[in-house]
């Protein structure tokens, strides 16, 4: 592995130099931006799935629970996969299946609730 821009070798377990203040600010700005964009996308996805549930007869808390349950599957599966990766464990099939099922359900619900035009789809 080479250190970016230097061509010098870095061993896999080596500790890198402390980040500069500019690096820290860039990472913070990137993190805030990603969190903001994820929040916007999540809110839109939530409203699409809630509208879909309401259009199919679910009312009250059930209409609001639908998007939470679908996205909750994805969040839990992602956290299990991340924890396994950090511990150096091999993940089993269940978190991968849950992530695939949650993602598929979320995508299908958002497409079903979207407008009929090409921008909506």
Helix content: 55-70%
Provide the structure class: mainly alpha
**Major β-sheet profile:** none
Radius of gyration, in angstroms, nearest whole number: 20 Å
- DSSP helical segment count: 3
Query: What global shape is seen?
Result: extended
For the record, the count of structural domains works out to: 1
**Stretches with pLDDT under 50, minimum 5 residues:** none
User: End-to-end distance, in Å?
Assistant: 43 Å
Number of β-strand runs: 0
Mean pLDDT: 86
Order of helices and strands: HHH
Estimate the strand proportion.
Answer: under 5%
What's the short story on this structure?
With 121 residues, the protein is an all-alpha fold. Helices cover 69% and strands 0% of the residues.
Verbal overview:
With about 120 residues, the chain is mainly alpha-helical. The chain has one domain. About 70% of the residues lie in helices and about 0% in strands. It is built from three helices and no strands. The chain has helices at about 20-55, 60-85, 95-115. α1 packs antiparallel against α2, α1 (about 20-55) packs across α3 (about 95-115) and α2 (about 60-85) runs antiparallel to α3. The chain is extended and about 55 Å long. The model has no long low-confidence stretch (mean pLDDT about 85).
